[in-house]
Specification:
eight-stranded mixed sheet, about 725 residues, alpha+beta, five-stranded mixed sheet
């Protein structure tokens, strides 16, 4: 077991490392510019060598910065003529929070004017251009060459005179010269980070319109997908409230879908431009705080007992504290805790990933896929927190990562639901089959007794024969009842205990495990009844055989072709080795036998070999013709590469209900297969034996007397 865990752990870490390397590579590719980046210097950006109509440019670099002043384009021209060049410059995109000015660092609240002069190429001055404006904290006005092109919110010099609003815009204009003068007034008194924190793009109107529409379509697709998946899982929970995994997963997905409306292209504000700004931010931050707790509860439903009670209690307290902070305080306070909230969410995910690693090492179903998509989601979420704090070049990746995570979880939940429904149908069907067979057995017994009673009273000459048959049948019935009483008492008692445990609600969290045990015991009882019935008929001579001469080589070819796929699907190699015998055309063996019964006996041996041979092993069937005491015998050998049988137990394995279970293997079986095989072979005048060194593999030999030796020539 330790070796399995070591190998499994090595594979799991290999998958994780591969996922992380792939994500880092993707980040490097996305963050590296595909063309040289042009940046402004001291408020002047030279784009004379760029073709904006086909290759939009981000207006990055140093812009003129006028703190605590709201200047119009005319005011800036007058000041420039009177005082000369501006002395203060600020890098865009960035917040003015922490900007050094006159020996002090600025706070996030305040107002300022930004200026930039752009020199265009002669070709671009004749093109229709556009500016793609992101959300800017928290109100702004934009002039281009003295013309007011955009106004979001209401710019003011204090909190009461301004109106905050977040909105993405796309404005169009026709430059009248090869110079663009951009003037932007920005004010912020609600968020702890003010200024132009995202890239402004300048380019051809067609290119930027297409890009904006594609981004909007992407955001709408992600949002719609998350909402539909979430509502679907909430509906599943309403229909079946016992399983809470769809509830937490549905809440998580719906909340993420709502939050995606407030990110990216800000779909929500485009639909409802007058929606309160403060309420918009509270919704976004509350969803962010709750996401870690909800995904923890979902994980606890999928993989029970992996989330500790103390972590569950701690995450409730911390999540509740942050939610209360967001509800009762204004945005200027709780937005300062964005990084702390992000750390809380990331710590949730890291804790869950540790549990996922343990579950994946134990090879729990769905754990590895859950782990890999969690790695992807964690990287995208961490990148978004870095981006919103100005430390990453790739932004707004979490919606895509969360969509991938959501789709993977949807597949996992669907497979669990499908498997549960299939198991319930199978259990119902098997219980019905068992009931039908018991009724049929009872009817057959009654019919047999009635027929033999009538024969006894009407046919005096056959009185002794009828009496013998009745006695034989009675012995078989008693033997079968004795077998059933002995062999079924234990699983039936176990099933009764599980049923009582469920009824008494001893441990409700183990009800699904108890139902699984009941189903397995039911299947086992059904199989044991069939095998016990058949074995009792064999032992009492009630099985008839249709004996006919059969050529062994074609018979083995047919047997091999019939079960080849079964063995190979179990992950084993299946080989038929009768080459030497087949080449000696003058001595082809013929055996008097019932082909179907011998096929049943051989399949019991092959099934036994499959059961005790690990995946990648070998099952080999061979045929030899031997001469013993002046008679010829056909010997079929079935060899496996399994775990072997101790030599001192080789004689016991053919006894009824004897099973050899090596510690740690946990192999289930009724112990009747080899006994049935021996009865069938002995009824044909043959014999069966086994050989093994107890360490590696076992070989079973079935020997039949040959009636005729035929040749092909």
């Amino acid at each position: 077991m330790r070796e399995i865990l070591r190998v499994g752990s090595r594979k799991v870490w290999l998958y994780i490392i591969a996922a992380v390397v792939g994500l880092v590579t993707g980040y490097v590719v996305l963050s590296s510019p595909d063309s040289p980046r042009l940046q402004s210097e001291e408020g002047i950006l030279d784009l004379t060598q760029a073709q904006l109509s086909t290759n939009p440019q981000k207006l990055t670099g140093k812009w003129a910065f006028y703190w605590q002043e709201l200047l119009s384009p005319e005011d800036m021209r007058v000041r420039s003529a009177r005082e000369g060049n501006q002395d203060h410059w600020i890098n865009i995109p960035s917040s003015w929070l922490g900007y050094p000015l006159e020996g002090q660092r600025l706070s996030g609240t305040g107002y300022a004017t930004f200026g930039l002069v752009v020199h265009l190429s002669e070709q671009d001055r004749d093109e229709m251009l556009a500016l793609r404006l992101p959300s800017i904290f928290n109100a702004y006005k934009l002039w281009v060459n003295g013309e007011l092109l955009a106004e979001v919110g209401e710019v003011g010099q204090d909190k009461h005179s301004m109106t905050p609003q977040l909105e993405t815009k796309l404005v169009y204009f026709q430059p009248e010269s090869d110079t663009l003068e951009l003037v932007m007034q920005v004010s912020n008194f609600q968020h702890h980070r003010g200024g132009i924190t995202k890239n402004i793009e300048l380019g051809g109107s067609n290119v930027l319109t297409t890009k904006t529409n594609l981004n909007l379509a992407r955001d709408m697709f992600i949002t719609a997908s998350l909402l539909v998946i979430g509502l679907y899982n909430l509906l599943l929970f309403m229909l079946r409230r016992k399983d809470k995994a769809p509830l937490y997963f549905g809440l998580f997905t719906v909340l993420l879908g709502i939050r995606s409306l407030f990110n990216g292209e800000l779909i929500f504000t485009q639909w409802l431009p007058h929606f309160p700004w403060e309420l918009q931010f509270k919704i976004e931050y509350l969803i962010l705080c709750l996401s870690g707790y909800i995904i923890t509860m979902y994980f606890d439903c999928i993989f029970p007992n992996y989330v500790s009670r103390w972590f569950r209690l701690g995450t409730r307290i911390v999540t509740g504290a942050f939610c209360i902070l967001v509800v009762v305080t204004p945005a200027i306070i709780y937005t300062k805790f964005l990084l702390v909230i992000g750390v809380m969410v990331v710590l949730h995910m890291i804790y869950l990933m540790i549990g996922l690693v343990q579950a994946a090492v134990r090879r729990m179903e769905g754990a590895l896929i859950f782990l890999l998509v969690s790695v992807v989601t964690l990287v995208t979420v961490v990148n978004d927190f870095l981006y919103f704090n100005g430390w990453s070049l790739v932004g707004n990746t979490s919606p895509l990562g969360l969509l991938i995570f959501t789709i993977a979880q949807l597949i996992l939940l669907s497979s669990r639901s499908t498997r549960t429904a299939s198991n319930e149908e199978r259990i119902t069907r098997e219980l019905q089959d068992v009931n039908d067979k018991l009724i049929e057995m009872n009817m057959n017994l009654e019919q047999t007794v009635q027929e033999r009673t009538q024969a006894l009273s009407t046919v005096h000459d056959d009185l002794q024969t009828s009496y013998d048959r009745l006695l034989h049948s009675e012995q078989g019935r008693k033997k079968l009842l004795a077998y059933i009483t002995h062999d079924l008492r234990m699983p039936l008692s176990s099933m009764l205990g599980y049923v009582e445990a469920i009824q008494d609600r001893v441990k409700p969290e183990r009800n699904e495990q108890y139902l699984k045990y009941i189903r397995e015991n039911t299947i086992r009882i059904n199989r044991m009844i069939e095998e016990l019935s058949f074995l009792s008929h064999l032992e009492t001579g009630q099985v008839s055989y249709r004996m006919e001469p059969i050529q062994m080589i074609p018979f083995l070819h047919g047997f091999f072709e019939q079960y080849e796929l079964v063995v190979r699907d179990a992950g084993l190699d299946f080989i038929l080795d009768i080459g030497d015998t087949e080449d000696r055309r003058s001595i082809l063996p013929v055996v008097e036998m019932d082909a179907k019964r011998i096929e049943q006996a051989l399949f019991n041996l092959v099934s036994n070999a499959m059961k005790f041979t690990s995946s990648g092993g070998l099952v080999r069937i061979a045929l030899v013709v031997e001469v013993m005491n002046h008679a010829r015998y056909a010997t079929i050998s079935i060899q496996d590469s399994g775990m072997g049988i101790p030599p001192d137990q080789l004689e016991q394995i053919f006894e009824r209900n004897y099973r050899y279970d090596r510690p740690g293997m946990g192999i289930e079986g009724s112990g009747l297969g080899l006994a049935i095989c021996r009865e069938i072979v002995q009824a044909h005048g043959g014999m069966v034996r086994a050989e093994s060194d107890g360490k590696m593999g076992a070989t079973f030999y079935v020997t039949f007397p040959c009636t005729v030796i035929e040749g092909k020539g």
